[in-house]
């Protein structure tokens, strides 16, 4: 979609960029789209929302968070398995950071350590970055690890 263009290369020379009405036509054929449910309304970029309204003026846009978000609460065994694997991989990434971090390193170098481990063990940074920044994830995990280490030290002393 046009709204997802990178600011560094807004024109995408030689690459046609789709519009919402093109996507609707491809998906619906001659059927008329009357309603479109939006999930993530509160974090949807304004240019995306405005483009939807402009390109699909006859379509009623509906906030669907209340309908779809509860579906995420109950996890299947497959989802739990994926979550367990993701936690294992992120623990390996945090361990690598703790073993390799040095004064003077940049944030990007630290993220690079995490990315290396995540990809090495079959993970996917794209999915992590689409939800929250890798730094926030790693910081939360780092703090949790430090709290666990402090608790162990207090118990052993």
Looking at the chains present, what oligomeric state does this protein adopt? single chain
Kindly report the spatial arrangement of strands forming the biggest sheet. Answer: 1-2
Mean pLDDT, to the nearest integer, reads 77
Number of strands: 2
Question: What is this structure's SSE topology?
Answer:
Blueprint: H1 20-28, E1 35-38, H2 46-55, E2 60-63, H3 65-68, H4 77-100, H5 107-120, H6 125-131, H7 134-156
Parallel strand pairs: 1-2
Helix pairs in contact: 4-5
Looking at this protein, list some descriptive labels.
2 domains, 58% helix, 157 residues, 7 helices, mainly alpha, two-stranded parallel ribbon, elongated
Summary of the model, kept short:
The chain has 157 residues and is mainly alpha-helical. The chain has helices at residues 20-28, 46-55, 65-68, 77-100, 107-120, 125-131, 134-156; strands at residues 35-38, 60-63.
């Amino acid at each position: 979609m046009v709204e997802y263009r990178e600011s560094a290369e807004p024109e995408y020379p030689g690459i046609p960029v789709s519009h919402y009405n093109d996507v609707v036509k491809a998906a619906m054929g001659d059927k008329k789209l009357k309603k479109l449910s939006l999930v993530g309304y509160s974090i949807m970029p304004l240019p995306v929302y405005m483009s939807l309204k402009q390109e699909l003026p006859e379509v009623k846009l509906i906030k669907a968070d209340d309908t779809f978000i509860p579906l995420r609460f109950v996890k299947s065994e497959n989802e739990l398995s994926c979550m367990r694997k993701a936690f294992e991989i992120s623990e390996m990434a945090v361990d690598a950071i703790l073993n390799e971090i040095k004064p003077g390193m940049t944030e990007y170098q630290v993220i690079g350590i995490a990315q290396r481990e995540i990809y090495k063990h079959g993970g996917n940074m794209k999915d992590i970055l689409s939800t929250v920044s890798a730094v926030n994830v790693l910081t939360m995990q780092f703090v949790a690890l430090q709290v666990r280490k402090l608790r162990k030290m207090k118990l052993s002393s």
